[in-house]
Specification:
The complex is a heterodimer. By secondary structure, chain A is α+β, with helices and mostly antiparallel strands. Chain A has helices at residues 2-17, 23-45, 48-54, 75-92, 96-113, 120-134, 143-146, 159-178, 182-186, 191-196, 212-233, 238-255, 261-268, 275-282, 301-317, 329-332, 373-381, 383-399; strands at 19-21, 155-157, 347-356, 362-364, 407-416, 422-423. Chain A contains 18 helices and six strands. Chain B has two domains: 33-211, A middle domain of Talin 1, CATH 1.20.1420.20; 213-369, A middle domain of Talin 1 (Up-down Bundle), CATH 1.20.1420. Chain B has helices spanning 2-28, 35-73, 77-97, 104-109, 111-115, 122-130, 149-157, 162-168, 175-210, 219-240, 267-283, 295-302, 312-330, 334-340, 342-367. Classes of the chains: A alpha+beta, B mainly alpha. Chains A and B meet through helix 3, helix 10, helix 11, strand 3 and strand 4 of A and helix 1 and helix 15 of B.
Chain lengths: 450, 379
């Protein structure tokens, strides 16, 4: 056993530290940068800077990041201008280190402003933009090299590329694991609801009126997510696997309103191709005789490897933290975010608040006065946001309307994945007195599956 | 990699076999609804429900206009009675239109703020009249609390003495101003409804009947949102606020004058109209008495359970009936019920809330329709 372990360790070391072409990294930088540029411009063009970050009066901060606040006036537009410029520079490989860290900071700052807008692919973009900051992706086929801002490099250790592949693998794999649940596999929910609502689309729409079709989609989706990264990794299966990735994501992008997510994944999985493949792609930008045969090895390589290990340990543990909480995950959503759980829920809820005090004052809150429709929708279905809003209301009614030690009660009904609606929050509990923390929320009523 | 590929191949083969079998099976079974169902349903909604409702309200508004002119020319008890009757007819016809408030033509104008925002700020209305301005264009710039059907109702029913009302339009020093205000109010309602009708007739009808998706702007989404909004207004404004379940900040005190049609004492009648109309709309029961395909029929095909444990479609209709019974228990005078028998109003509020949960949570959930309009990404 011991010798086997040593052999395995050597094998891993050999794999991680072996020298490989920088081409995949440079090629990834170009496409990923282009995608960042496209999605940031799209975000601004859709007017979302205004509707999501300027109009709201209240923001649902992430716990521990309450200090992150939106900028006043045109400040948020400045942030997006920085983001767009940085994405452009990443794509071109110009002032790359500054550009990539600026992109990471501006993008992550925007994401941290409001839980309402949490999307898994935003989280993915944050992580990848941080990872590529540490990688010498600008040392080949870039303006930094062309304009002699940095020296060209042709070879890097394999682990530079492997960490990107591993990160992408984690996304798919956990997304697949999360689909192994009774709603998804045995009841084909939420796809039954979603596909039925798409039965008008041309050519394939009619299929969605058949009960069996969502089951096929569900099972295929699960198998795809769980296995695709292994097929992408294998030389023989890669072309078919990548074709499957493109078809799968374009189809889901066509069927559902999921924005740039399909393109993010189509671009990201590009990294799995061979160095020769990427070299051919890069020959559009750089001629072959510009080869330098330089090898790039980071200083303190062991230190960076240790950091990578820490990162991936967190990546493996974070999606599993839900196991620490009682109750049905989809219902309580304790430990739901940052776990690559995509397209798993059709959840609708309606939540109203009553504020009272000892002097007899009472008010039924109109959420729309404080929240945008999108915020109200997200808040209604997510207990941690319900609690945050309740705390805000307590303060608001104390300072603005002179309530004395206001008590806040939530009346809430939610429907999940085709199950009928049921009471969601215990309306006898004064939420103003419940602390905002990571402890299990006992005031969420249980979800019993009748 | 072979240790992985082999089992995957095996699983894939099995899956393909499974797929092939199930596809064969599924082809035998006919689906319950398709595009034709939806097209028929939306065409029926446009032609047999929505347009007739607006048209019939329009006819009532024309009569209201005639009666207003007659009354303004010769203000007497007789012309006032005639005008009051014309007004109540128009207000009751409006109850059938309000449920379409979130469909695009009405939504674009923010119709509720022009037509039926209550309670009216009576002091502000009187103060404006007493300024004796007599401009006819002022009305558009007036606050939503100062116009629409509730403002007309206030002018025509503010006291039980008909003579007093006739006097304010005849011998009152600002009688001319009363007349101008009333005429302007009526004219604005007519103009608003004409805009809505012409939008429907020129372009929106075609868009409406051809929209088969469940996106934010689709007919499905707007109809479901419209009905949910109507239920919300019923629960909050018609029933709740007068009974003390009030909006932003209040005390435990009840507020009967905040009810719809408080001055003409028609709150209960209009609640019943609202609920009966809601039932007809869901059932697809048109003004032409031909019952076509309605939302309830569509929901029934989905065969989903409601929060009460029964079939969602049946439970919605049953819950509307429960609400109708509770409204009847509050009849004939809602103010009187709130003041002397508040438990009955509380019971009604509770049942209205249950209806709202069905409309706002269960229905959108079953249909896969979003209850908000926001255009945003998911993942």
């Amino acid at each position: 056993m011991a010798t086997n372990a040593i052999a395995l360790k050597e094998k891993i070391q050999h794999f991680l530290f072996r020298t490989t072409s920088i081409a995949p990294l440079a090629s990834f930088r170009i496409l990923f940068g282009a995608m960042l540029l496209f999605s940031s411009v799209r975000f601004v063009a859709k007017g979302w800077v205004n509707t999501l970050y300027i109009q709201p009066k209240f923001f649902f901060a992430y716990q521990g990041f309450e200090f992150v606040k939106p900028l006043q006036g045109n400040g948020m537009y400045v942030v997006f201008a920085v983001m767009i410029l940085a994405a452009c520079c990443i794509m071109l490989g110009l002032f790359y280190r500054i550009a990539s860290i600026l992109f990471f900071i501006s993008f992550t700052y925007v994401e941290l402003l409001d839980k309402t807008n949490y999307l898994n692919h935003y989280y993915f973009v944050s992580i990848v933009s941080l990872i590529i900051f540490f990688l010498p992706a600008n040392k080949y086929a870039s303006l930094d090299v062309k304009w002699k801002i940095t020296n060209q490099v042709d070879y890097i250790p394999m682990w530079f590329i492997f960490i990107l592949q591993l990160q992408i693998g984690i996304v798919y794999f956990f997304a697949g694991i999360a689909k192994i649940n009774p709603d998804w596999l045995l009841h084909a929910q939420p796809l039954t609801i979603w596909l039925k609502s798409r039965d008008y689309i041309p050519v394939i729409g009619f299929l969605f009126d058949y009960k069996i079709v969502p089951y096929l989609f569900s099972w295929f989706g699960m198998l795809f997510d769980v296995s695709i990264v292994f097929f992408l990794w294998n030389n023989k299966t890669r072309p078919y696997a990548y074709l499957a990735v493109v078809v799968f994501h374009l189809l889901t992008g066509y069927l559902f309103q999921i924005g740039v997510f399909p393109y993010v994944m189509i671009v990201a999985t590009w990294i799995f191709f061979s160095p020769e493949f990427h070299q051919r792609f890069l020959s559009f930008f750089i001629s072959k005789d510009e080869k330098s045969n330089n090898l790039y090895r980071p200083k303190f390589e062991r230190f960076w490897i240790a950091l990578v290990l820490v990162h991936f340990s967190i990546q493996f543990l974070l999606p599993l933290r839900y196991l620490l909480y009682p109750g049905k995950l989809f219902w309580t959503e304790q430990g739901y975010r940052f776990s690559w759980r995509v397209m798993l829920m059709e959840k609708n809820a309606w939540t109203t608040f009553v504020v009272k005090d000892k002097t007899g004052k009472i008010a039924e809150v109109r959420n729309r006065i404080y929240l945008t429709p999108q915020q109200e929708k997200q808040m209604s279905t997510q207990p941690d946001m319900i609690l945050q809003f309740a705390h805000f209301l307590a303060k608001e009614y104390e300072t603005k309307y002179g309530f004395v030690n206001p008590e806040v009660y939530a009346d809430s009904y939610a429907a999940l994945n085709g199950h009928p609606s049921r009471p969601f929050i215990n309306n006898k509990i004064d939420l103003a007195k419940e602390d905002i923390n990571f402890a299990p929320k006992k005031w969420i009523l249980p979800f019993e599956n009748k | 990699m072979s240790y992985f590929i082999q089992p995957m191949k095996y699983i894939l083969q099995k899956c393909l076999l499974f797929c092939a079998c199930t596809i064969l099976l599924s082809c035998v079974k006919e689906p319950k609804t398709d595009d034709t169902f939806k097209k028929e349903m939306f065409t029926h909604y446009a032609d047999a429900l929505i347009l007739p409702s607006y048209n019939s309200y329009d006819t009532a508004l024309q009569s209201l206009k005639t009666a207003t002119t007659q009354f303004n020319t010769t203000p007497t008890i007789s012309t006032l009675t005639n005008l009051q009757q014309a007004f109540l007819t128009a207000y009751s016809k409006w109850q059938n239109c309000e449920i379409y408030d979130r469909t695009s033509p009405a939504d674009a104008l923010m119709t509720m703020d022009i037509v039926n925002y209550y309670p009216t700020r009576k002091d502000s209305v009187l103060a404006y009249i007493n300024r004796n301005d007599n401009s006819t264009t002022f009305i558009k710039s007036r606050n939503k609390n100062d116009k629409g059907l509730p403002a007309i109702e206030y002018l025509l029913f503010r006291t039980s003495s008909q003579q007093e009302i006739v006097d304010s339009f005849s011998i009152h020093p600002n009688a001319a101003s009363y007349k101008t205000y009333l005429t302007s109010l009526v004219d604005l309602l007519i103009e608003t409804n004409h805009t809505i009708l012409s939008d429907w007739n020129t372009s929106y009808r075609n868009i409406f009947i051809k929209s088969l998706s469940t996106d934010a702007a689709s007919s499905f989404s707007t109809l479901v949102n419209s009905i949910a909004q109507r239920t919300d207004d019923f629960k909050r404004k018609q029933v709740g606020i007068p009974a003390g379940y009030s909006g932003n900040v209040s005390t435990v005190f009840t507020n009967p004058p905040a009810a719809q049609a408080y001055y003409s004492n028609n709150s209960i009648e209009y609640m019943l109209l609202t609920l009966n109309n809601m039932k007809d709309v869901l059932n697809g029961k048109g003004n032409d008495t031909i019952t076509g395909k309605g939302l309830i029929d569509y929901i029934r095909t989905l065969d989903v359970q409601s929060t009460f444990g029964g079939n969602l479609a049946d439970d919605i209709l049953a819950q509307i009936d429960v609400c109708i019974n509770k409204v009847n228990a509050c009849a004939p005078d809602y103010t009187n019920t709130i003041n002397n028998n508040k438990q009955k109003a509380d019971d009604l509020f509770l049942e209205a809330k249950k209806l709202l949960v069905l409309m706002k949570v269960d229905v959108p959930s079953a249909l896969g329709v979003s209850i908000t309009y926001t255009d945003s990404d998911g993942d």
